[in-house]
Every structure is written in structure tokens, then in C-alpha cells.
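W.,

You were right to be curious about this one. When I first looked at the sequence I had no strong expectations either way, so I just let the prediction run and decided to look at it fresh. Below is the sequence, 115 residues in total, followed by the output.
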Amino acid sequence: VQVVESGGGSVQPGGSLRLSCAASGFTFSSCDMSWYRQAPGKERELVAVITSAGGSRNYADSMKGRFTISRDNAKNTVYLQMNSLKPEDTAVYYCNARSRWIEVWGQGTLVTVSS
């Protein structure tokens, strides 16, 4: 039972990155999937969430219009497209899977936005 994030890296302000989170060992299509992030010295915060069937998406206010969460239930994968990145988006980004029966966290992937 695991989720594994990938796609992090270093990017200049205004750039884009696409994070992926691959799930295995559980019924991905039954889980709401979320992205969280934790910046140095700060608490972990919710970035975006997408419901199990993909019918509803919600974002933190500071990410609206810049980030897009999506999922492919056939590939057991959730994505986070991040555009117009800012230095304050620098953080470790975590994937979370949650249903009535299970909650799984990934190890995180580091995103650094710097010139």
C-alpha cells in the first residue's frame, strides 16, 4: 500500500511543473486524492483535492487559477499541474489518498522556485 510522488525539481519564478503520484496496493478509484505541501518552518497545508470519481475539485485560495489537480483512474495516478510558480510555492509536496477505510501518505517531492 503506497503512493509515490515524482516530478519535483527546481524551476524559475513563472515556470511550470507537473507532479505525479502513482498509487498501488489499494483501490485507487475509491479514494479522494489530495496534494499537500510543507514549506520550511511552516505547517503542512492542503493544496488541492479531487474526489474519487473526479467530479469535484477544490483548491486553496492561493493556488486557484495557477494549479490544476487531475486523476487517471485507469493509471492509478493523480497529477498536479503547477503554473506561474512563485518563490513562496517552494515546499515539499505530498500526495494523500483517503477513503472510509484507508489513508496513505507519500514521502514527498521537493519543489524549489528560485531565480
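Here's what jumped out at me. The longest strand covers residues 17-24. And, maybe more interesting for your project: The radius of gyration is 13 Å.

Coffee later to discuss?

I.
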